[in-house]
Amino acid sequence: MNNQNFTTTILVDQSPKEAFNAINNVRGWWSENIEGGTEKRNDVFTYRVKDLHQCTMKLIEIIPNEKVVWLTLDNYFNFTENQTEWIDTKVSFEVDEKDGKTQIRFTHIGLIPTHECYQICENAWTGYIQGSLHDLITTGKGHPNPKA
C-alpha cells in the first residue's frame, strides 16, 4: 500500500531567510497559545486549541534558511477515537529557491488519508500554510489562533 503524506506548497517573493524566520515564528501563524521554544534544535513546544486539540512537538532538524522538522511527541483530539494518529509523525518545512521565488513545501509525514482526522487536519493545515503562514511571510501579519 502506498501511503501519501499530506503536502501543500506556497510560493512567495520574499527571501528564504524571511520564510525560514516566519516558519519559526509559530505564534505568528499557527497559534498564540504556543508554550515553549520554537526556534532551536531540541526545543519542545505545546499547541492548544480550547478542548479540541493539543499536541507537543519537538524540533528535531533545523537547517537555517532551508529546513525545519518537528516530531509529534504527544497528541489529543476531542473528535477522534484514535488518539495516536499524530504521535511519532513529523511536520516538515522545506525552503527552496524556485524561478526567482521562495518555495515552502510543507509535509505532515504520517498524516495519511486513512486517518480518522485526515480531512479535518488537511483543511486546517491548508488554511494555516496557504493562508496564515503565507500572509505572515508576505505582509508580516499572519492569522494564528488567538490567545485564549
CATH architectural arrangement:
2-Layer Sandwich
> How many domain units?
1
Number of DSSP strands?
A: 7
Q: What's the CATH class label?
A: Alpha Beta
Determine the CATH topology.
Alpha-D-Glucose-1,6-Bisphosphate, Chain A, domain 4
**Tally of helical runs:** 3
> What order do the helices and strands follow?
EHHEEEEEEH
Strand order of the largest sheet: 1-7-6-5-4-3-2
Beta-strand content = 35-45%
Summarize this structure as a short list of keywords or feature phrases.
7 strands, 24% helix, Alpha-D-Glucose-1,6-Bisphosphate, Chain A, domain 4, globular, 148 residues
Textual characterization of the structure:
- The chain is α+β, with helices and mostly antiparallel strands.
- The chain is 24% helix and 37% strand.
- The chain contains 3 helices and 7 strands.
- It has a 7-stranded antiparallel β-sheet with strand order 1-7-6-5-4-3-2.
- Strand 4 (53-63) and strand 5 form a beta hairpin.
Question: Secondary structure elements and their pairing?
Answer:
Blueprint: E1 6-12, H1 16-24, H2 26-29, E2 35-36, E3 44-49, E4 53-63, E5 67-77, E6 90-98, E7 101-109, H3 118-139
Antiparallel strand pairs: 1-7, 2-3, 3-4, 4-5, 5-6, 6-7
Summarize, please.
The chain is α+β, with helices and mostly antiparallel strands. It has one domain (6-139): Alpha-D-Glucose-1,6-Bisphosphate, Chain A, domain 4 (2-Layer Sandwich), CATH 3.30.530. The chain is 24% helix and 37% strand.
